[in-house]
């Protein structure tokens, strides 16, 4: 088994997308494995998945990670930011371009997403079932599925929106609960929070950039999903996310659902357990 790692910038209409591809050549395998396409959470960048990529490459899986437009090393162009009216961009189109420009021709993919990345992975699965071989959704939402958070949770989200609106980068970044995470993890989350809040306050990235909404929410198309699906969530996550992941698991045929003793960032909070669970699911669904 040999591994070739490449990274570069992909030009898209709205700017540039940074990507990193770890290609594994399994010389003795007749079966061409699908490629894992990792989509990060809206409070992180592609380095969220570093531990998973290292673990799964060692198991023989090729992995593509990238920064969503306006996150990490992916940037909207000045021309796009100045455009009026500014056209929303399509993440599905960006994923198509990454697959076509970076991956081997006719390669199938398994989107693996966390938080907003899970929602995007689900959306890509229902939109591109001809090239998607499986799906892993972690701590995400389901388009079209409604479920209320608690009043306390809603207050925190409103406070975050108000701080962003006021341009208070540090205040928004510091909303994570002290002592909730181990110190190295908390430090990394704070670093990400500051970078992302700054882009959102300046309207140059993060959720300040509008994306194209699907005509039919993914949650209305769960019955069309035929590929294997793995669902993971944290027992201590917000109310809506837990309900959405349970809903996804209940409405997709043969979905496998795993609850972890974590909050939202499952793969960071319990990386070893998450890696083993994902690796076991991949082995059972695609190799055994």
TrEMBL record:
<dbReference type="InterPro" id="IPR050266">
    <property type="entry name" value="AB_hydrolase_sf"/>
</dbReference>
<dbReference type="InterPro" id="IPR000073">
    <property type="entry name" value="AB_hydrolase_1"/>
</dbReference>
<dbReference type="InterPro" id="IPR029058">
    <property type="entry name" value="AB_hydrolase_fold"/>
</dbReference>
<feature type="domain" description="AB hydrolase-1">
    <location>
        <begin position="36"/>
        <end position="276"/>
    </location>
</feature>
<dbReference type="Pfam" id="PF12697">
    <property type="entry name" value="Abhydrolase_6"/>
</dbReference>
<dbReference type="GO" id="GO:0016020">
    <property type="term" value="C:membrane"/>
</dbReference>
<protein>
    <recommendedName>
        <fullName>AB hydrolase-1 domain-containing protein</fullName>
    </recommendedName>
</protein>
